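Dear V.,

Thank you for sending over the compound details. I've combined the ligand you provided, magnesium ion, with the protein sequence from our construct and run the structure prediction for the complex. I'm sharing the raw inputs here so there's no ambiguity about protonation or stereochemistry in the SMILES, which I know was a concern on your side last time.
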Amino acid sequence: MNTKLLSLNEATRTVNSGSNKVTLLDDINLQVNEGEFISLMGPSGSGKSTLLNCIGMLDSFTGGGYTFLGEPVHSMKEKNRSKLYKEYIGFVFQAYHLIDELTVWENIETPLLYKSIKSSERKALVADMLDRFNIVGKKDLFPQQLSGGQQQLVGIARALIGKPKLILADEPTGNLNSKQSTEIMELFSQLNKDGVTIIQATHSEQNAAYGSRIINLLDGKIVEE
Amino acid sequence: MIKNYFKIAWRNIMKHKVFSLINVIGLTIGLSASFVIGLMIYYDYTFDDFHKDGDRIYRVVSDFKSPQGTFHNSGVTLALKDAIADNSNFESITEFYINRPSKVENKANNTEFKWPNFVMYTDEAYFNIFDYKFIAGDKSTALDKPNNVILTETRAKEYFPNTAPADLIGKTLVYNDSINITVSGVVENFKKRTDFVFEEFISHQTLLQTDRREELLERQWGNTNSDSQLFVKLTESANVVSIQKRLDDLALEHTDEDDKKYEMSREFQLQPLSDIHFNEDYGIYDWSKGQASKSLLSNLALVAVFLLLLGCINFINLNTAQASQRAKEIGIRKTLGSSRKQLISQFMGETFLLVFFSALLSIVLSKWLINVFSDFVPEDLSFELFKAPLIVLSILLLLFVVTILSGFYPALVLSKFNTVSVLKNHMAAGEKKVRLRKFLTVFQFTIAQIFIIGTLLVGKQINYLLNKDMGFKTDAIVSVYSPRSERELSKKELYAEKLRSIPEIKSVSIGSHAPASYSTNTTNVTYTNEEEIIKSEMQYIFGDTNYANLFELDILAGRIHRNDTVRELVINETLLKKLGFNSPDDAIGKALTVNDEQTPIVGVMADFNQRSLKSEIKPMALRGDWYRSQFSQFQAIHVSFHNESSENLKSTLTKIEDAYKSVYTETEDYRLQFMDQTIETFYNREKKISKLLNWATGLSILISCLGLLGLVIYTTNRRVKEIGVRKVLGASLFQINTLLCKEFLLLVAIAFVIATPLAWYGIYSWLQDFTYKTSISFIAFIVGGAAMIFFALLVISFKTLSAANANPVNSLRSE
Ligand SMILES: Nc1ncnc2c1ncn2[C@@H]1O[C@H](COP(=O)(O)OP(=O)(O)OP(=O)(O)O)[C@@H](O)[C@H]1O
Ligand SMILES: [Mg+2]
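Below is the predicted structure of the protein with magnesium ion bound, written out as structure tokens.
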């Protein structure tokens, strides 16, 4: 239960906007073990999404060290990274990021395609997901034809279908009503109990409470544990 | 996965209908051109490729070198065969003699056939070299004896309708009224494409019974007739160098003194079988078929490549421009575990789908194009060729190459996107490829521009050639040739007499060919003045005393020959200068040595062109028919009309033909040529080039403008908000349009600057073939540039005006 999954060592991220240097993340030290459920909290603009993106290797730290499963990330090849996305990590985005040209069904199915799962099995898995999130009726619609909340559900379904060992969720329930968000949180803690590591960014104290650990961010710095 | 890709591909194609259409049109044009041109190349390169050991079969031909240049003759002297027959490098050697009988009769059926063509006199060896399938008769004995003939199936059906081949053996045909010939074999016609179009093979000894008897008996080294053909098949281990050495030695050994005096020499060459279809120096057996030209084919291939390139460029430009819209999808797919390779193959799949669709369209279009390009496409080139395995394979390969060419770069660009920057803000790397797109657009317009300028200048040159004064009268003149078998002069005079009585006819003259023609009759002359002996070659035209008058030849000094048979010459200015006279008057009364006889110059005529304006004016003399008693040179009757209005013309022509039939009752060999049409045939090749250029120009403008349209649509769509804001701030329609046009017009202008020297150079080199050339006028360049800018403006304004016209509130609100 305490295998080290990832560790951040004085990690920073700065960007140049025009002539001035902006520090988005400053001196982040963080160890995450497999099986943890971490909630990132902080006011808007504090850097939650930025940190999640960097952890997810969508973006990179500009300073400090970052090792994932014992391997330094900065020397990781693009090939290994896409292998990690395929087999290990599931993303839930704040802005949903569904593929506009694909239907709900096809959006959820896509990760399975990259995992080369057989068609019959894919059908069963997708149907199961649609059922679990109560969106069977929407399966042939395109993202623009869905409400924000529905899109968010599809995004979560898509992240979970590949059975990832690490879920990175950015405001997974931002657009859902309280009943729905409770259900999602229950689902997350169930997955967590089954051994899935979860890191989520959230504004809601209630949701944060599902986590085993809360990290507060302010202006790109971790303030307390 | 594949299915998923195609689904997305299809949805993307449908979502961007205009762009997809532009891509498909461009690619379809490029592919159609490639298909048709590819078929033509395949067609011509598969002539006579089916003969067994074809790479070891050669034709022996003669080249004559003299200070005037090299003359080619596809035949060799009849003496050559015996001199090389025992050479161990040859597996087989055969001579054949092409001779067209004037008449063949099947007495049993009472039918007769006039001037059957493709008749040769040959021996068994011919059938050893060329593998015909015998349906009847025996190859080894069929041509053993004189007075035997092998017919092809086609010819046999003609001579003996409804008779089985086996029953034909032993049947008799009568050639030229007197020679009885027995059918001894029937062979299948070659089923594949071939230049060996012969239909009748008569045993070689039979030639002794024809008017070629002397020629065959004497077998003189000094006599070369293109009808006398020699083919050899080399052994597998043959030494080509030693064969050539032997041929060179023989040529040297048999050079006569006269040839040496005039620095003339002869060479025998081995012409490979595969060269026969292409080499215009020696020609093919069926003159009515245009000869394939490697340079024309390679020009065509170049056009196809350019059109295809233009189509691919549209693809690259539009797809990289569109990249930002695809960026989000790419980013998401990456987070879902797609590798870069998978993304690239996804985009390539999309490209292939479009390419494949275009290919299907192109195949349909090709059928139509084969008709449009009928000037270039051989008549029997059919759509069926598409089934040839090599063609199918090449098409697949071409599709693959086009897919790579147009799809790979955009795919590379797209798959490279950084995930987060793409997901965060949808602007993306596509913007950075602006420079590449500009470069490619300039490239497109440069090609289009070169084509435009080329078309204008080639057109100008052709017009110039057709309208330039040849130096004699060329309109309202026809020439009627006497029957080939008819040598008697009295009938010509009778015919001329009848023609003179037709009121529409202004003037009639009996003579050889018209002043300009494909035929030449050349001899050597010497002139001895006080200081030196001057030698020159000299072409003859033969005519009666009215010839110069009818063709309105300009007599500068002296007079024309006094009558048809007096030994007098009227020389042209070129010969005058060559012989060193200062003025026309100086030459009058001087004598030239022609064939060892002194011949006086009685007149000097102004120069005129004897051929197309590509060639220089040659030294020439007009003379009468002074060897008439042995061999009359008069073979045509030239007729000029009072006026050449079309309604009159038709009835006049009928009268001319009726008169002909009343004189020559026995023959149907009526041949009439319009002078102006003959001159036009000098420029057939140039006209083909011009037509080709017209098409290439039109299509390249179309493709480039479509590409431009795509880019304009893309940019204006992106700038809709800016346009809205500017309008709200009070900019006029014109100002906005200028703003949008400026950027694109600059590209067109750059293309113009690049295209101008290239086009100039291309045209300059092309014009070097012509003795008479138009100036390369700068107007053509200006017109070319203006046309391009006009088209570009049209395309740009079409889109920008509608964008500028749109209600600004709509565009602002939607953002
Ligand atoms: N590429 C960038 N260049 C400059 N500033 C950036 C860039 N990316 C993010 N930022 C800034 O970094 C800060 C943190 O952004 P981030 O999206 O991580 O906030 P967040 O904590 O997720 O906020 P929210 O709760 O609203 O989602 C913001 O102030 C943002 O403007
Ligand atoms: Mg955020």
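A first observation: Residues 138 and 146 of chain A are 8 Å apart (CA to CA).

Warm regards,
I. M.
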